[in-house]
What does this fold into?
Amino acid sequence: MQTPGRRHGALTRGPASSDGFTFVQLADPQLGMMASFKEIWWVDTVRTITCQLFDPPIPVDTSPALPFEDIYALEVQHSERAVDAINGLSPTPAFAVVCGDLVHAYPGHDLNPQQIADFKRIFSRVRPEVPLVCLCGNHDIGDRPTPTAIAMWRDEYQTEDYFTFWVQDTKFVVLNTQLWKDGSDAVESAEAQNEWMRALVEETQREHPSRVITLSHIPPFIETADEPDGYFNLETTIRKRLLSQLSSIGCDAWFCGHYHRNAGGVYDGERPLEVVISSAVGATLTNKTDGSDIRGLKGMNTVGLDMKTSGIRLVNVGPRGVTHEWRTLDRCVPCEAAGPGASQ
It folds into this structure.
């Protein structure tokens, strides 16, 4: 049984500052995602030949002329620009967090080791005074994670798959949402996280933090807590249980990724909880123009790599609450931290 003893050693509780603090949220660098679409070039051809009768849930590549090597190099540049943005921030952020899908190739895929090596090389340039927190996404531990894949994650990135940490008097809760998405091959791990959550609620109620903020890969919902289930959100029963638990301990905001688009909404529980879905550092998606199935794979329209759409989120935690601003990569360097009134 897991206990609330999973901690991030570099980030511990301290007194709250009257000025608060800032942090940077990144989601889905997913090195190799755009490059992977070069391996399925035939899909668009078959779509055209069949007059859209054959239409698998694969978004249209907006850069069909760029070869594998060039588009991968562009993905690397996106992550490098994000690191430059973090390093250029003033004031210095308390930490930066990558909310899952660090790389695209699944564990065991031939390309996985090289993509991990590239991620580490790029993000090792983050200033040493800015701790880098990494979360696992479905591409990091598999759509149906196994204990072996989770152990590989812990070994590769030297971090747990779920844990807590503090900045001043704000408590951060990091979740492994893939265990709730499909934990059928890691039943004991999934139940351990459930037990950890139950104990966490009791512990946090005793600790009385000034604020609680949650971080994960998969969002609980895309727009509303009552929406139908889909690929990009958590199943309704699990979603509502987690939202209720987090609201009961005064959670202000839940920052996540996975969707490759900006979205979110507010859960009205014991305390309003804002769900903030950040688009990707890497490849971003668009919705189909008819707005159908925005929670599922069939609702994806295009996938592209453009510094005018990819970006990072700057978050300010202060006396007046949690505010945030989405900043696209093309306007990130130089970069100032989000002010207390910013929100997008």
Notes: The two ends are 39 Å apart (CA to CA). The CA atoms of residues 234 and 267 lie 14 Å apart. The first helix runs from residue 33 to 36.
